[in-house]
Amino acid sequence: MNILMVGDVVGAPGRLAFATVAGRMKQAGAADFVIVNAENAAGGRGLTPALAEALLAAGADVITLGDHAWDQKDLIKYLDLEPRVLRPANLAPACPGRGWITVDTPQGRVTVLSVQGRTFMPPSDCPFRATDEILKRGAELGRIIVAEMHGEATSEKIAYGRYLDGRVSVVAGSHTHVQTADETILPKGTAYLTDLGMTGPKDSVLGRDLAAVLKKFLTGMPQAFEIAVNDVRCEGLLVSVDAQTGRASRVRRVQEKLEP
Ligand SMILES: [Fe+2]
Ligand SMILES: [Fe+2]
């Protein structure tokens, strides 16, 4: 089974790039299952129910979020209605929604789980222990398990990958909007990438218009950050997983430029 994970979708350009690339890869049979981080899909801030529906219609099987999960208030109720949209699993238990899902597919059962890191991130429960709790469910879960850590620190994401090596099929990071080049298959068979990157305008600062971000850094004054427009790309990771063993056999970074 080929699993495509897509890094943080930013605004309308990111949504278009995701729909184009994921749609093409699904149609061509290059991707069987698609997971997309959409925490910045609504103008850079969170996700709305309508945009979630559009991403699901465009080819997403599961949508993940992160520290921007609560930016759009309409999403809060929606999270209890649409189990395919995940917020990090290690938030306070009283938060709406959930952090993992198991999906039955023609190629087998797939479990996707999302956690948020704790280094340079908003407070949360331990992502390592939260993952252990989910993995304890054993037979309820798929043979194929994909874990995403939404986090800032490379060390925390690498440690998380090594902690889960051999216990899940894929571990990838999100949140920094800058793709790392360390894709690998870890010693016990788990595919790993520290950060998926960003799906949106690369001629920017993390998807936002350069001038406004520079003004913020130069003056320290708050600015409205518009979404940038140029050099739109879709970034992520494509992993081939053996549906019988759950082990990864091939891993390839994805970075596709949207032709204007
Ligand atoms: Fe993000
Ligand atoms: Fe984030």
Topology overview:
Blueprint: E1 2-6, E2 8-9, H1 11-27, E3 33-37, H2 49-57, E4 62-64, H3 74-78, E5 85-86, E6 100-105, E7 108-116, H4 127-135, E8 144-150, H5 154-164, E9 170-174, E10 184-185, E11 191-193, E12 198-201, H6 210-219, E13 232-241, E14 248-257
Parallel strand pairs: 1-3, 2-12, 3-4, 4-5, 7-8, 8-9, 9-11
Antiparallel strand pairs: 1-13, 6-7, 10-11, 12-13, 13-14
3D structure, described in words:
The chain has one domain (2-202, 235-257): Purple Acid Phosphatase, chain A, domain 2 (4-Layer Sandwich). The longest helix is centred in the first third of the chain and has 17 residues, at 11-27. The chain is globular, with a radius of gyration of 17 Å. The model has no long low-confidence stretch (mean pLDDT 97). It is an alpha/beta fold and 260 residues long. It is built from six helices and 14 strands. The strands form two sheets. Strands 1, 2, 3, 4, 5, 12, 13 and 14 form an eight-stranded mixed beta sheet that branches. It has a six-stranded mixed beta sheet with strand order 6-7-8-9-11-10, with helices on one face. Bound molecules: fe (ii) ion (2 copies). One fe (ii) ion (FE2) binds next to loops.
